[in-house]
């Protein structure tokens, strides 16, 4: 009997883990030219929408000491910044080609994307 | 004193005005100007009355921040390393006592106390980051460690305090924490070393310069130098910005910027590069490029960009890393359930718990994540130290597959400064030829004009001048029509000159040939060596030139090159590259980056020789800052070494997880052993990347 309980709990827990971590959907907010991203246990918001062809300011504030969050990389734009704890890092950019530009931490564990529309 | 500080948090031009006002109101500040575009404040202040932090306070309330000194990031990293070190010392001592205590039967209460300090003191960061991650519905390695150690600690605490049947595992949780913290400490130290090359480049620029304005010499900060300033550089001083020597002569050591090993003699009219070291003499030069325009700034920017780019080989890791931690969490649950259901009839729950903890602890996404970027940072940094600038990770990755290098002849294999070597027909021929070529920008015309200038010949007036596309020129001098251009027929004399690798032009009238002028371009000293080194690396070499086949063959022969493309018009160089590619070759094209742009783009990797102090070559994947052609075999060797490091890193990081996670799940690894393996995995990847520095070049 206890084995059935353990099995059922395990299946339930695995399902919960899947839903919690992999089932999230980030729609992103409205298109903005001044974006603020909080860097703690990931990026929030992780999906930001910006207008293509306009200068945009992205401000990152890191409050999480996790090593890999120290580096912020947008590979397709060849941008890499070191985020000092509790300090705003301002990135000014202008993306002329609309599309999705992924960003991630130094070890590619935490991810997000900029969508230029 | 006057100083410039970066300002953080400006969003519009009015911010600059606000900051300016706030700074000016601060006691001790005499003057302040804030530039929105550069995000910098120039403040004149009395350091005895006001300091950086007071100025920062003055503008902080408005939502801005004044950055006292640039090396903050480095300070932060050093603090981080120091913090991990202390955590390890405390955690290590607790671990040693606990292990000794568990063997000698130390009171469980004391062990619980020690474990609590370790769990929530030394290991507090793991909880903090886990909580931050969970709020974002994400997880990382710290999440796994926090859960793993919490289970071991929680179970042991329950045994001690609640009398749950069994033995406590305090030594497990404290040792895991101590070892992981040790791993983090060593990793942070090693990671700092990967970016040493770029830090060195950043440290090259001096802080001040001796500027002569209105006849007065003064020492000013480097940011204040403007184009056109005259700057004095004395022996032993660094050249502050890029410019051209106006007076004096000296030798300058450019090795730190260009990788050029021998100090170069410089005199009036020569270019000097900011960040290089003046050795013997004193010069005065005029600043031509300042700030972000300087060669050093461009190099740093290029290297930084390359290090931020994504290597195609990284793609798989990127996909995996997104699922890694959740997958390990699911596997942990499955491990426990599996042991509980299918394990031995007694103690299967406990065995399942230990196996599950081992799975959580052994999983190491960090090693995977570090595999490519650390090697890339070391590889591109090392290349930059040798004057090789790699545009991005993709170029570096393709470069290791190159099996054919095609060189553009003029200006690449040769100096690009042709000189007249032979004249048949005397000064009259040279005079007529120079008259016809007067005003032309063509390198051959320049050579003829220079020769005429040297012999102080008076040029004649030319009427009805006409350029004959690809053939030469014609015009009327003293009522007689002359033609200067390619030989129309081949005499033995012409053949002989062409066989020596010279370009021959013939001067004639309609009736007869009057004379011959042979022009040759000096082959670069390093060309032959470069070709030989490439061939030793089993890379085929060919050359492209506009010369006729005989001249091309002669030059190819001098260099030991077997294949050449002769009589190629500039626009057709691209086709030659495509032809090689259609033969199944992976081609690197080496050119000057200006006239060859289409061919460079068409090649798998375009290699451009930087001209002057311009290094940002759009079409090139690799730019050579020095004019040393031996940098090409070096660059290819480096790319192969870097790729090899990336591949070994990825192999070990994958193999580590693929082999040890199942081993842990099946109960073959104790949690303590798992933590020791985990602590060594990331550090071994970083250390392997650091070994790249020892590549024999």
Automatic annotation (TrEMBL), chain A:
It holds the Pfam family Cupredoxin_1. Residues 14-116 form the EfeO-type cupredoxin-like domain. It comes from the Bacteria. SUPFAM superfamilies: Cupredoxins. Keywords: Membrane, Transmembrane, Transmembrane helix. The chain crosses the membrane at residues 6-22. InterPro entries: Cupredoxin, EfeO_Cupredoxin. This is EfeO-type cupredoxin-like domain-containing protein. It comes from Candidatus Amesbacteria bacterium RIFCSPHIGHO2_01_FULL_48_32b.
Automatic annotation (TrEMBL), chain B:
It catalyses: Cu(+)(in) + ATP + H2O = Cu(+)(out) + ADP + phosphate + H(+). Keywords: ATP-binding, Cell membrane, Copper, Copper transport, Ion transport, Magnesium, Membrane, Metal-binding, Nucleotide-binding, Phosphoprotein, Translocase, Transmembrane, Transmembrane helix, Transport. Its main location: membrane. The keyword ATP-binding applies. InterPro entries: ATPase_P-typ_cyto_dom_N, ATPase_P-typ_P_site, ATPase_P-typ_TM_dom_sf, ATPase_P-typ_transduc_dom_A_sf, ATPase_P-type_domA, HAD-like_sf, HAD_sf, Heavy-metal-associated_CS. It is found in: Cell membrane. The chain crosses the membrane at residues 86-103, 139-162, 320-342, 348-371, 649-666, 672-692. It is a multi-pass membrane protein. One of its GO terms (cellular component) is plasma membrane. One of its GO terms (molecular function) is ATP binding. GO terms for biological process: copper ion homeostasis. Its EC number is 7.2.2.8. Residues 1-67 form the HMA domain. The keyword Nucleotide-binding applies. Belongs to the cation transport ATPase (P-type) (TC 3.A.3) family. Type IB subfamily. PANTHER family: ATP7, ISOFORM B, P-TYPE CU(+) TRANSPORTER. This is P-type Cu(+) transporter. The lineage of its organism: Bacteria, Candidatus Amesiibacteriota.
């Amino acid at each position: 009997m206890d084995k059935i309980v353990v099995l059922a709990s395990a299946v339930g827990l695995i399902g919960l883990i899947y839903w919690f971590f992999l089932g999230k959907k980030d729609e992103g907010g409205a298109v903005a030219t001044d974006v603020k991203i909080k860097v703690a246990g990931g990026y929030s918001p992780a999906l930001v929408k910006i207008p293509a062809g306009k200068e945009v300011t992205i401000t990152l504030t890191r409050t999480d000491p996790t090593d890999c969050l120290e580096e912020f990389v947008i590979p397709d734009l060849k941008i890499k910044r070191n985020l000092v704890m509790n300090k705003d890092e301002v990135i000014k950019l202008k993306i002329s080609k609309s599309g999705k530009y992924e960003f991630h931490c130094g070890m590619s564990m935490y991810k997000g994307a900029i969508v230029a529309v | 004193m006057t100083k410039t500080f970066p300002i953080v948090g400006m969003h519009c031009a009015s911010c600059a005005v606000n900051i300016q006002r706030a700074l000016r109101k601060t006691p001790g500040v005499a003057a302040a100007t804030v530039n929105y575009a550069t995000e910098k404040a120039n403040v004149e202040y009395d350091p005895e009355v006001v300091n950086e932090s007071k100025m920062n306070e003055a503008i902080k309330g408005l939502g801005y921040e004044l950055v006292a000194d640039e090396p903050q990031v480095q300070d932060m990293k050093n603090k981080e390393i120091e913090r991990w070190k202390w955590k390890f010392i405390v955690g290590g001592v607790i671990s040693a006592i606990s292990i000794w205590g568990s063997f000698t039967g130390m009171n469980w209460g004391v062990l619980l106390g020690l474990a609590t300090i370790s769990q929530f003191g030394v290991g507090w960061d793991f909880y903090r980051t886990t909580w931050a991650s969970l709020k974002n519905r994400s997880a990382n390695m710290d999440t796994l460690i926090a859960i793993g150690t919490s289970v071991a600690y929680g179970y042991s605490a329950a045994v001690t305090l609640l009398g749950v049947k069994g033995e406590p595992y305090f030594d497990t949780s404290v040792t895991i924490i101590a070892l992981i913290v040790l791993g983090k400490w060593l990793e942070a130290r090693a990671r700092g070393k990967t970016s040493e090359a770029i830090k060195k480049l950043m440290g090259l620029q001096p802080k001040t310069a001796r500027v002569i304005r209105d006849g007065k010499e003064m020492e000013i900060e480097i940011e204040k130098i403007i184009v056109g300033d005259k700057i004095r550089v004395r022996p032993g001083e660094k050249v502050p910005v890029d410019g051209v020597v106006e007076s004096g002569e000296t030798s300058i050591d450019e090795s730190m910027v260009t990788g050029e090993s021998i100090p170069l003699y410089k005199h009036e009219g020569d270019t000097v590069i900011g960040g290089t070291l003046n050795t013997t003499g004193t010069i005065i030069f005029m600043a031509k490029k300042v700030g972000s325009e300087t060669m050093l700034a461009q190099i740093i920017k290029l290297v930084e960009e390359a290090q931020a780019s994504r290597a195609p080989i990284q793609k798989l890791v990127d996909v995996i890393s997104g699922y890694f931690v959740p997958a390990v969490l699911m596997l942990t649950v499955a491990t426990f359930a599996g042991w509980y259901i299918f394990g031995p009839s007694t103690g299967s729950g406990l065995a399942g718990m230990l196996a599950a903890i081992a799975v959580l602890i052994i999983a190491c996404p960090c090693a995977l994540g570090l595999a490519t970027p650390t090697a890339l940072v070391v590889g591109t940094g090392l290349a930059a130290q040798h004057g090789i600038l790699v545009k991005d990770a993709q170029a570096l990755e393709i470069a290791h597959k190159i099996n054919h290098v095609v060189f553009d002849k003029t200006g690449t294999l040769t100096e690009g400064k042709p000189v007249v070597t032979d004249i048949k027909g005397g000064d009259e021929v040279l005079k007529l030829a120079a008259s016809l070529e007067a005003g032309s920008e063509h390198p051959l015309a320049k050579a003829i004009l220079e020769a005429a200038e040297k012999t102080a010949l008076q040029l004649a007036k030319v009427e009805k001048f006409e350029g004959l596309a690809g053939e030469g020129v014609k015009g009327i001098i003293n009522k007689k029509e002359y033609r200067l251009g390619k030989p129309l027929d081949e005499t033995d004399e012409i053949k002989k000159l062409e066989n020596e690798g010279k370009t021959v032009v013939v001067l004639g009238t309609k009736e007869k040939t009057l004379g011959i002028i042979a022009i040759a371009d000096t082959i670069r000293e390093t060309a032959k060596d470069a070709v030989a080194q490439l061939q030793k690396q089993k890379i085929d070499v060919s050359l492209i030139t506009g010369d006729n086949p005989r001249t091309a063959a002669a030059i190819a022969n001098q260099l030991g090159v077997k294949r050449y493309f002769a009589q190629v018009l500039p626009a057709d160089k691209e086709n030659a590259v495509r032809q090689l590619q259609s033969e199944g070759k992976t081609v690197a094209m080496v050119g000057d980056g200006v006239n060859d742009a289409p061919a460079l783009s068409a090649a798998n990797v375009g290699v451009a020789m930087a001209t002057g102090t311009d290094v940002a070559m759009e079409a090139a994947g690799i730019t050579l800052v020095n004019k040393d052609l031996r940098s090409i075999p070096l660059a290819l060797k480096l790319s192969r070494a870097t790729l090899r490091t990336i591949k070994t890193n990825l192999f070990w990081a994958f193999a580590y997880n693929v082999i040890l996670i199942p081993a842990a799940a099946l109960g073959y690894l104790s949690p303590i052993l798992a933590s020791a393996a985990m602590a060594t995995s990331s550090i071994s990847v970083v250390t392997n990347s650091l070994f790249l520095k020892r590549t024999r070049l």
